[in-house]
């Protein structure tokens, strides 16, 4: 998990991620983004689910709209260190994450996808 350094979710813990570059596959983007944000090498396995993340401003106008793919990946190598647009990075249990600033939807997806609770 990484602690976001930039809006819209600044200060929130989330799985590493970012934009897909033109011509890049989603799986290639996962490998690149995880490495950039955490220093960890992964091998993507499958798409678990997707989420529409819509952030509104104080006037209820849509400020950001992201389509987020949650992709399961196999750990290959590396130690979590923050990089790129992350304030911090680390491994956490679901119990630990439930006491941190994490979107409820993220906890739900991780719990349902891995049947850990």
TrEMBL record:
This is ADP-ribose pyrophosphatase. PANTHER family: ADP-RIBOSE PYROPHOSPHATASE, DIHYDRONEOPTERIN TRIPHOSPHATE DIPHOSPHATASE. Residues 1-116 form the Nudix hydrolase domain. The keyword Amino-acid biosynthesis does not apply. It holds the Pfam family NUDIX. Keywords: Hydrolase. One of its GO terms (molecular function) is hydrolase activity. InterPro entries: Nudix_hydrolase (IPR020476), NUDIX_hydrolase-like_dom_sf (IPR015797), NUDIX_hydrolase_CS (IPR020084), NUDIX_hydrolase_dom (IPR000086). Belongs to the Nudix hydrolase family. The keyword Hydrolase applies.
């Amino acid at each position: 998990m990484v602690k976001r350094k930039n809006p819209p979710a600044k200060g929130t813990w989330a799985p590493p991620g970012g934009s897909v570059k033109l011509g890049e596959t989603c799986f290639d983007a996962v490998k690149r983004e995880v490495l950039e944000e955490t220093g960890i090498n992964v091998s993507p396995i499958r798409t678990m689910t997707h989420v529409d993340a819509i952030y509104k401003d104080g006037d209820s106008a849509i400020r950001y709209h992201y389509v987020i793919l949650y992709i399961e990946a196999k750990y290959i190598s590396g130690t979590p260190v923050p990089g790129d647009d992350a304030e911090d990075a680390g491994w956490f249990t679901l119990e630990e994450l439930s006491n941190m600033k994490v979107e409820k939807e993220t906890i739900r997806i991780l719990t349902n996808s891995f049947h850990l609770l």
